[in-house]
Amino acid sequence: MTADTGGAAPGARRRMPHARRREQLLGEALREFGRRGYHLTQMEHVAAAAQVSKALLYQHFASKEDLFAEVTEAVVAELTGRLTRSVSPDRGSVDNIAAMVRVLFDYATDEPDAWTLVIRHLDKPEVGTELQGLRDRLGEAFAGLLLRRRRADPQMSPGALAVNEYRARLLVPLMYGSLLSMVSWWLDRPEVAREEAEGMAVEFIWLGLDRLRSGERLDRPVR
């Protein structure tokens, strides 16, 4: 049977449909940005990885900034969607924290290129706002789960609740930073069981930070 070339001359390469080509270019850009970082990645790197001309790449994306913005927008939408769906009002806070931790481990395992991009650029707002928004939403989600039990406590006065909320938000950078570092550390150590790493992450967030949020302090000054 003769292959359908769509009327093209024998031996000619069929042009990839626009949507499929765009998807391919975004996938290659994700890998390049994750591997090299935003500043070292050039449009020619993406074009070469996709085996297309730089001119064709510019037909789809006006600049490196536009390309990176679209890549990060897709990553943030996927990850925040997974995190949002993992939380249920029918479960307790610690179970929801465990569910969110599981999502991060799943995402790092299923989408290693996207995970690398997030880790490289999360705290670099100069390369775009999407990942900064992810950082803020991630922190707010964990802070909200830590505060959920206190907000439901009828014995908690409005003043005490305000103090607890302030302390929880002070802990947000420590919380998400340590968790993301833990996941990346585990990825590099296949000898460590995932269940053990996940359990340690949940215990760190719930037992360690919850004690600080509740007002517990060392009985000596930290130097």
Automatic annotation (TrEMBL):
InterPro entries xrefs: Homeodomain-like_sf, HTH-type_TetR-like_transc_reg, HTH_TetR, Tet_transcr_reg_TetR-rel_C_sf
Record keywords, A-Z: DNA-binding
Matching SUPFAM superfamilies: Homeodomain-like (SSF46689), Tetracyclin repressor-like, C-terminal domain (SSF48498)
Pfam families recorded: TetR_N
DNA-binding region: 42-61
Segments forming domain HTH tetR-type: 19-79
UniProt-recorded name of the protein: TetR/AcrR family transcriptional regulator
